[in-house]
Amino acid sequence: MSNPIELFGWAAQPRDVSVLLNGKKNIKEPEPQSVAKTSLPDTPLAKSVLEYARKQLSTETFNHSMRVYYYGKAIQTQQFPEWSFTDETYLLACLLHDIGTTDQNISATHMSFEFYGGTLAFDLLTKELHAPIEQAESVAEAIIRHQDIGETGKITTLGLLIQLATIFDNMGGHKELVHQDTIQDVTANFPRKKWSSCFAATIRKENGLKPWAHTTALGEEDFPNGVQNNELMQPYD
């Protein structure tokens, strides 16, 4: 891959997941996919962002970000193997997608956390780590739109996979895309540590600070309640 569209996950996909799945629950029955057998990029850029995320994020949010990586890779490799992007690019998006939710960052701006997080990620990747501009832009757009869920229009491949994996971890959405054994292995490696209540509290905190926040588009009560009452992940919380 040398085309930036392919390298960095820019190809357009429908936001409506049912269109991708042709109205079915999945493309194929999922199979177990362990952390040990899933490649994790070890490029200098990936290592730098991994270290940055470890320092900036709480343990709960860092573990969530890693689960999003491994669930997303299971979804991509098994359900949508034709999707094109580097694992490095996807890892960067996973590690940085909730950077706007830290105590410092959520209070540092009037912007919704996804929008501010995308800005922070773009600046980190371009100004400090000198990533390719097309890669930094793709990561920023995926972060900004990772809660832009809907049934009309398009989204980038990277952005859609972040959506699928975060909704899966946060609310148990599209549970038929990932095998139960994969959940058990991923949560054993990156424990949830009561993530459902933790993230629900973060949603309510932002909505309290910023009643205009984009998160409210998912339902001011429905979204935090859905996260809090994630039945699929309850045994692992």
Would you mind describing this structure in some detail?
The chain has 237 residues and is mainly alpha-helical. Helix content is 55%, strand content 3%. It contains twelve helices and two strands, in the order H-E-H-H-H-H-H-H-H-E-H-H-H-H. Strands 1-2 form a two-stranded antiparallel sheet. Helix 4 packs antiparallel against helix 5 (87-96), helix 4 packs antiparallel against helix 10 and helix 8 runs parallel beside helix 9. The model has no long low-confidence stretch (mean pLDDT 97).
Overall shape: globular
How many DSSP E strands? 2
Cα-to-Cα separation, first versus last residue? 39 Å
Strand order of the largest sheet: 1-2
Strand content: under 5%
Helix content: 55-70%
* Overall average residue pLDDT: 97
The structural class is mainly alpha
